[in-house]
Amino acid sequence: MLIVLFLRWIFGYFDFIVKGRFPERFLNLASRNGLNLWNMQGEMGELRATAKIADKSMAELFAKKTESEFIVKKEHGLPYLCKVYRSRLGLLAGLIIGVALSCWLSGFIWNIEINTPPQINEYEIREQLRDMGFYEGTKYNSDEIENIERQLSMNDGRISWVSINVFGTNAFVELSAKIDVDKDNNENKTVVSNLKSVADGTITKINVHNGTAVVGVGDGVRKGQLLVSGIMEYTDGTNVLADSEGAVYAKTSRTVTLSAPKQYNKPMAVDEYVYKKEICFFGINLPITFCGNPTEGYYKKENKLKPTLLGNSLPISITEEKWQKYETKKLTLSDAEAKELLNNRLKLYEMFMLYSDDCTILSKKIKFEEKNKTYYLTVSYETEENICEKSYIQVKE
Amino acid sequence: MKRQKKQPSYNQRTLADRISGVNMNICGNREVIFEGSRGIVEYNENSIKINTGKYIVAFSGRGLHIRCMNEYSLIIAGFITSIEYIM
């Protein structure tokens, strides 16, 4: 129904009244001669209806034939508007300029959306594309886009393929990351490895799944010493190469020293701001606030507003820059503060370095001291841990 | 400017036409699809009379109007209170 209304508006229509003794005759003539009428409302001796502007002369003729009065009440649609605004050339010029401008602007790329896999940064790709001359406001050229696709995949070793799809004035960049083929190939090759010690200690437990253990429980080992060999010897004298697997636990001791200077410099935020605004209109950056970038001691926060219309980004963006001043202040740590700080750091160290399935803390001794304007926290651990580390052997087949 | 009267094609003629009768499809009392019209005899918001050749069909009611029409058929809409055959 909407399309019918639209077409009627395009071709134009008019409301009219036929006044006479027998308006029914008008209806009969209209229906027999293919005059399309709608919104017909009949009253005594009067008929109101609507018809196409093209059928106006025919309607007038039928009214004359039926000896009725024909009154045009109102005209609607595009032909009527053209007639009304015929004398106003400025409107016509504006319309022509508007159409020409929209035709010209549709030849540019106004929005670039980049869809990247997690290992590739979108910002990096955007910058690379900018260097190649593909940015918001660039003219659309299908040949150039093919070159850019090729160039981008050649320049960046992480990318396996690139596709730039242009829909209207929007460009959608799709990327796919390279898969490490060598890594996959290595899995199929014969891998031979030994297990070596990563720390000094006394062996408490051995659990070997593959390979030959060359040390026993109670043995003392040094860092880098062979623990499990990847060459297995059979009783008949033949050798088999193996990828050693297993765990060798040993009692080890380690000392960790954490330090914090008594006096230190810390940048502190000050309530001093410099605001800058910039509008990007069809690829052209126009500053709204006229001031330069602040000198040293300021840190910038940038916020970009990009309005959208019906899910499509518009070629307008507003960038707000907030520069905040930071002042370096000299602070002094008290004994209690230093202790708390170093203890927190120690907790982090233990959490990430020691607490695991392969390491158990048997005992620890903590020593806190101040030397040469620096606080030290020295911790000596007695641990039982897996001291194995794989060491691959290159085998030529 | 005078248009020549077109003869309706076979497809344009309705079943009612071919058997030279009238076919009415009445949807409640709000709408009637009428086929086999030979002309409108009376048209106002309280009464619509249609000539079928052999008799006149008169629709009475309130706010009656013809929604759309061609040479042989039309759709009458409004609040219909009675349908009468005038011989």
Keywords:
heterodimer, A: 397 residues, alpha+beta, Alpha-Beta Plaits, Ubiquitin-like (UB roll), 5-stranded antiparallel β-sheet, 4-stranded antiparallel β-sheet, 27% helix, B: 87 residues, mainly beta, Immunoglobulin-like, 6-stranded antiparallel β-sheet
Instruction: Please name the CATH architecture of the domain at 2-83 in chain A.
Output: 2-Layer Sandwich
Task: Assess the beta-strand content of chain A as a share of residues.
Answer: over 45%
As laid out across the biggest beta sheet of chain A, the strand order is 11-9-15-23-22
How many domains comprise the coordinates of chain B? 1
CATH topology of chain B: Immunoglobulin-like
Please give the CATH class of the domain at 2-83 in chain A. Alpha Beta
Helix share of residues of chain A?
Answer: 25-40%
Q: How would you describe what is shown here?
A:
The complex is a heterodimer of chains A (397) and B (87). Chain A has 397 residues and is an alpha+beta fold. Among the domains of chain A are: 2-83, Alpha-Beta Plaits (2-Layer Sandwich); 111-177, membrane protein fhac (Ubiquitin-like (UB roll), Roll), CATH 3.10.20; 258-263 and 333-385, no CATH class; 266-328, no CATH class. Helix content of chain A is 27%, strand content 46%. Chain A contains nine helices and 24 strands. Chain A has helices at residues 2-11, 23-32, 56-65, 78-84, 89-105, 122-131, 142-155, 181-188, 335-354; strands at 13-19, 37-43, 46-52, 69-76, 111-115, 159-167, 170-177, 192-197, 201-210, 212-213, 220-221, 226-229, 231-233, 239-241, 245-261, 263-281, 284-287, 298-305, 308-309, 312-313, 316-332, 359-371, 374-386, 388-393. In chain A, a hairpin with a 2-residue loop joins strand 16 and strand 17 (284-287). Chain A is elongated. Chain B is mostly beta strands. Chain B has a single domain (22-86), classed as Immunoglobulin-like. In chain B, 5% of the residues lie in helices and 56% in strands. A six-stranded antiparallel β-sheet of chain B has the order 1-2-6-5-4-3. In chain B, a hairpin with a 4-residue loop joins strand 4 and strand 5. Chain B is globular. The termini of chain B are far apart. Classes of the chains: A alpha+beta (397), B mainly beta (87). At the A-B interface, helix 2, strand 2 and helix 3 of A face strand 3 and strand 5 of B.
